[in-house]
Write a structure and sequence with these properties.
By secondary structure, the protein is mainly α. The chain is built from 12 helices and 3 strands.
């Protein structure tokens, strides 16, 4: 393999990203050792042990910033999830990777990768040679999601109501208030995130990461608007839902088990 002008084989050089990733301090140290190794002749020993330096070497160049493709994919995924909640991506419609990429100012590749993740989550389905169709969901699916969420979360809430002290519940007040503010602003996407954050914090008190992950996935799916209904929940619905959080906290702090049982049951009777 013919080396490039920098002493690195051309195939290896071509595989390197155009702009180096911004590393952590430990990565800079390892990168510096690697750079010094490339500047020495073949077979010449190079000191690479921690804390070992070679005098007279030039300083390691400052790495230039880079937006990693994984970061782009994550940003696109978040944007697509927001578009699902707000109804910008309409149920039944087919969207292509290139068209969405142009909309977001990126190539089609991270869009397709994000859409593949949404397909795994059940939000879209692949349409060969066309793109991705937003799944149309009806009342039955919403009812099933509500039932499954209730089966998973309600027993946990009731158990936590008996075991978690009042002062710990009081620490969740800022999250409940943030949800009220998001609902009052009438922004479905902001409220959806605040709603999930509150539920995630409650379930985290159980100390079960798998529970938090599975319940969070179901919660997100329940927030996608169904076909045939308004694109997003109205401001009044969001405010009513948010105030259920504060009412639940009040009952939990007061230790009113009967009221908690009633409020928790009501909170999981519909889409959230």
């Amino acid at each position: 393999m013919r080396p490039s002008a920098q002493g690195v084989p051309e195939a290896e050089a071509a595989a390197q990203p155009r702009v180096p990733a911004q590393p952590r301090a430990a990565d800079v140290d390892r990168a510096g050792n690697a750079d010094r190794a490339r500047t020495h002749g073949a077979g010449e020993p190079v000191a690479t042990a921690r804390g070992e330096h070679t005098h007279g070497e030039p300083a390691v160049p400052r790495p230039r910033p880079l937006v990693q493709r994984s970061s782009v994919r994550g940003q696109i995924l978040d944007a697509l999830r927001t578009a699902l909640v707000t109804g910008e991506l309409r149920p039944g419609e087919v969207y292509s990777g290139p068209a969405l990429g142009e909309r977001f100012g990126v190539s089609a590749t991270p869009v397709r990768e994000a859409m593949q993740q949404l397909a795994l989550e059940g939000a879209v389905e692949v349409v060969p040679n066309r793109g991705f169709r937003v799944v149309e969901r009806g009342d039955r699916e919403l009812a099933e999601l509500a039932e499954v969420r209730a089966l998973i979360e309600v027993p946990v809430w009731l158990r936590l109501a008996r075991t978690v002290p009042a002062e710990r519940w009081a620490q969740l007040r800022p999250l409940a208030e943030a949800a009220v503010r998001a609902a009052s602003a009438g922004c479905p996407a902001a409220y959806a995130e605040a709603d999930r954050a509150f539920h995630r914090a409650v379930l985290a008190l159980a100390g079960n990461d798998q529970l938090v992950h599975i319940a969070g996935d179901l919660h997100r799916r329940a927030q996608w608007p169904p076909a045939g209904l308004p694109a997003a929940r109205g401001r009044a619905d969001l405010i009513a839902d948010a105030h259920e959080h504060t009412a639940l906290l009040d009952a939990l702090i007061a230790g009113d088990q009967d009221l908690v049982r009633t409020l928790v049951g009501e909170h999981f009777t519909g889409p959230r």
